[in-house]
Design brief:
This protein has about 300 residues and is of the alpha/beta class. The chain has one domain (about 10-15, about 45-95, about 120-290): UDP-N-acetylmuramoyl-L-alanine:D-glutamate ligase. Helices cover about 35% and strands about 25% of the residues. The protein has helices spanning about 45-55, 70-80, 125-135, 150-165, 180, 190-200, 210-220, 260-270, 275-290; strands spanning about 10-15, 15-25, 40-45, 60-70, 85-95, 100-105, 110-115, 140-145, 165-170, 185-190, 225, 235, 240-245. It has a six-stranded parallel sheet with strand order 5-4-1-8-9-10, with helices on both faces. The protein has a four-stranded mixed sheet with strand order 3-2-6-7. β4, α2 (about 70-80) and β5 (about 85-95) form a beta-alpha-beta unit. The radius of gyration is 18 Å and the shape is globular. The chain starts with 8 loop residues before the first strand and ends in a 10-residue tail after the last helix. It binds adenosine-5'-triphosphate and alpha-D-ribofuranose.
């Protein structure tokens, strides 16, 4: 089930990459070379992917990020435009190239990713603050991921809190500045590993992912939604505690971007007025469908 939704305004703050993907029988061990039939190029980056997922869900989406002044940057922006994403707050760096992710996907759909940040490392706190603060009418939801400088992440969360709009933080990857982010009560959407890392960062001991999520929810006083891959989603709210949603059945070819799909669809539904549980259910369903296609955005 995927409920289309219209009209919500979402601002996404995060990375824009070009993904270079080789599908191989298995992932390489350290120092090993594995061979696949070819390399394919896809639009990527957690921010850009989530922006596309939200736009395809029906939200009005603005992306705040950075690309280089190069062919990769031009094609990245053209793809975002084609998906209806507003790129007016994407800066173009004269110094750094567009971010690139080198991705290997195995026959089970598991991946290994190395990212060269390039221009993503130049996303600026002032640029982020201005885009969120001056947005008129204000967005309904700000979605932030952490492949950009920590001060830009903190600026996004502060500006969203000041504007009184939903703020979702996908803490991927975990960065030290998340300790400050937690003080601004965002909705968190970690995967299991990130959930443990954040609980440890806030000084809480946790043996299980449920304990870690509960500790995080006590720290922020806000919902915590843990994505569990083929294990589905754990949805926690301070009022109602935790509920587990099973993953929907899927033929798995490539899990790259499943988390981004979840976050983009979730943000779009919250922005359009859905309840947190409605938004999580629809996002869980959309993310399951996304893993059946190679390429982060192909199955969105
Ligand atoms: P990524 O960083 O690759 O985007 P992630 O680690 O942030 O991913 P996951 O927890 O792996 O995110 O997956 C996000 C969501 O995608 C899951 O909560 C689930 O809804 C869906 N999903 C992922 N893998 C599967 C699967 N094998 N079958 C069904 N649904 C899946
Ligand atoms: O979440 C998937 C994304 O992570 C890929 O598109 C890649 O660019 C990396 O940023």
């Amino acid at each position: 089930m995927n409920i289309p939704c219209r009209g919500g305004r979402v601002q996404v703050v995060g990375a824009i990459n070009v993904d270079l993907v080789v599908v191989t029988p298995r992932l390489p061990a350290p120092g090993e070379t594995v061979v696949g039939p070819r390399m394919d190029r896809y639009g990527g980056g957690k921010g850009a992917n989530a922006a596309v997922a939200a736009a395809r869900t029906g939200a009005q989406v603005e992306l705040i990020g950075a690309v280089g002044s190069d062919d990769n940057g031009e094609s990245a922006l053209a793809e975002l435009r084609a998906d209806g994403v507003d790129i007016g707050s994407v800066s173009v760096s004269a110094e750094s190239p567009t971010g690139v992710a080198l991705i290997v996907v195995d026959e089970a759909g598991e991946n290994q990713i190395a990212v060269g940040s390039g221009a993503n490392a130049e996303v600026d706190a002032a640029q982020v603050d201005e885009a969120i603060t001056k947005r008129s009418p204000p967005s309904d939801c700000v979605l932030v991921s952490t492949e950009i400088p920590g001060d830009a992440v903190v600026a996004a969360v502060r500006a969203a809190e000041a504007a009184g709009v939903w703020c979702i933080v996908n803490p991927a990857p975990p960065i030290p500045e998340l300790a400050e982010v937690l003080r601004h009560h965002p909705i968190l959407t970690p995967n299991a590993g990130e959930c443990h890392a954040l609980a440890a960062m806030s000084g809480k001991d946790a043996d299980t992912v449920g304990e870690a999520a509960d500790a995080l929810m006590q720290t922020t006083g806000a919902p915590v939604i843990v994505t569990l891959g083929s294990g589905g989603v754990l949805v926690g709210t301070p009022a109602d505690g935790f509920e587990h949603l099973d993953a929907e059945p899927a033929v798995v070819r490539d899990t790259t971007g499943a988390g981004d799909t979840f976050n983009g669809v979730f943000a779009a539904h919250l922005a359009a007025g859905a309840t947190l549980m409605e938004a999580a259910r629809t996002a869980n369903s959309a993310a399951a469908r996304s893993v059946s296609y190679v390429g982060a955005r192909a199955g969105m």
